Amino acid sequence: MTASLILVLNSGSSSLKSSVFDLQQNQEVFTALAERLLTPQAQLTWRTPESGKQTLDIAGADHTAAFGQLIAAMTNAGLNTNQLHAVGHRVVHGGEAFSASVRINDTIMNTIEQLAHLAPLHNPANAEGIRAVQRLFPDLPQVAVFDTAFHQSLPPAAYTYALPYAYYKDHGVRRYGFHGTSHRYVSAEAVARLDLDPESHRLITAHLGNGCSACAVKNGQSLDTTMGMTPLEGLVMGTRCGDIDPSLHDFLAQRTGLSLGEITHVLNKESGLLGISGLSNDMRTLMEAAESTSAEITEPQRARAQLAIDVFCYRLAKAIASLTVATGGLDALVFTGGIGENAANIRTQVVHHLSWLGLNLDVTANLSHGRDQMGLVSTTREPAVMVIPTREEWLIAQDTQRLVQASWDH
Ligand code: ADP
Predict the structure, then answer these.
(1) According to DSSP H, which parts of 231-357 are helical?
(2) Ligand 1 within 6 A of 275 CB?
(3) Is there a single domain that holds both residue 142 and residue 201?
(4) What spacing in Å lies between the alpha carbon of 381 and ligand 1's midpoint?
(5) Residue 410: which pLDDT band, with cuts at 50, 70 and 90?
(6) How far apart are CA 114 and CA 262, in angstroms?
(7) pLDDT band of 408, cuts 50, 70, 90
(8) Are residues 348 and 202 in the same domain?
């Protein structure tokens, strides 16, 4: 029996998210989430296509203990760990060292850890996930798939900040971009679904989840993107401010007495949709509040929810328009992520801002999120507007399979 299961792990500072794909059957057979690690409330939830959601208390568990429990849950769910072929990890920051996914060895691990200064919350957690697997399955091949890798094709004019050049040379200060796996997946899907020439196409992809970024893809390559040195730059997000005047740190420190760290926290965790609305970071909640006639939502709350939505859409449209400078035209605009895939009103508002680009939504197709039209939600195919559900874990599984196979072939 050949091993056909690929385990995909997304290891965060206090969480471990996983999916198992059976590549022979071409389907996801197990998902699990360990949350609040290293606290008394640590919990593991998992599900398979057959079973409903199951939960286990794993109080105090660290990444290694949680991974052990996750494997036990997998086994109890009827999956044989002997069938595990390889493990693919989402790694947030590959810096300038990685422009593609790689098979993990000691040198690669050292490099991932050396890049920790670029993603101090994420890379050490990703490395911890890799070590947890190594401890339990020392012989299992592992692959790293980087959030930044797809954007390593950005030209210097797109990634260079207008700062003293020494900051780039000495400290790696530049635009890296994130959500690369998602932008890569949906752009390739759009090219296939629209039957575009793989060597000649111009796309803008908008990944709109809790974090949001847009990307200019020309001929299969990312040429520019809205997130920067960190995921704080660019679009308005759930709790992140996106682009602001860089003088604000100084101004706010003087006016409010907050420290640099406290202001950074506000910009990351208390801004964006949450900051403007004062109500929620969740787009669905804001859309409901903006349209609510219930007395539970006051008029000022309704107005603020609408303002948050309006700023979100305007800023996104502005970013999409500016990204067309990189592509030199537009064959398709692609929406993905929780908001991009599900919020028809947001797509309507954004495309309305961009109607001068020749974009025109098909109202019925947009309301059904393009599900009956292979994702097409516009009246025209040139340019097209598409809704394509992202499958980052799936692409990580594919990369993992390919790289493990390739190293056996050599
Ligand atoms: P993450 O970045 O954490 O993976 P998601 O991609 O799941 O997040 O996106 C979460 C966002 O998607 C939230 O703002 C949520 O409100 C929004 N969302 C999900 N479903 C809908 C919906 N039906 N209508 C509007 N927004 C939605």
Answers:
(1) 248-256, 260-269, 272-277, 283-291, 299-327, 337-342, 344-353
(2) no
(3) no
(4) 26
(5) low
(6) 26
(7) low
(8) yes
Q: Are residues 33 and 119 in the same domain?
A: yes
CATH number of 220's domain: 3.30.420.40
User: Ligand 1 centroid vs 228 CA: distance in angstroms?
Assistant: 22
Q: Are residues 134 and 15 in the same domain?
A: yes
Residues marked as binding?
10, 17, 90, 207-211, 282-284, 338-342, 392
Catalytic positions? 147
Question: What is the mean predicted confidence (pLDDT) over 12-18?
Answer: 90
Six-digit token pair at 359?
A: 């974009």
Kindly state whether residue 399 falls inside one of the protein's structural domains.
Answer: no
Q: Which domain holds residue 57?
A: 5-146
Task: Tell me the whole-structure pTM to 2 decimals.
Answer: 0.95
CB burial readout 361-400, b (16+ within 10 A) else e: bbeebbeebbeebebbbbeeeebbbbbbbbbbbbbbbbbb
Peptide bond into 155 cis (omega under 30): no
Altogether, the residues listed in the chain come to a count of: 410
Distance CA 228, CA 232 (A): 7
Residue 126 lies in a domain: yes
CA 378 to chain centre: 25
Probe target for ligand 1 pocket from 205, 313, 342, 387, with the most ligand atoms within 8 Å of CB: 342
- With a 6 Å cutoff on the Cβ, whether 33 touches ligand 1 is no
Same domain? For 218 and 366 the reply is yes
- Per-residue model confidence (pLDDT) at position 25: 87
User: What's the number of domains the chain is made of?
Assistant: 2
d(CA 320, CA 338): 18
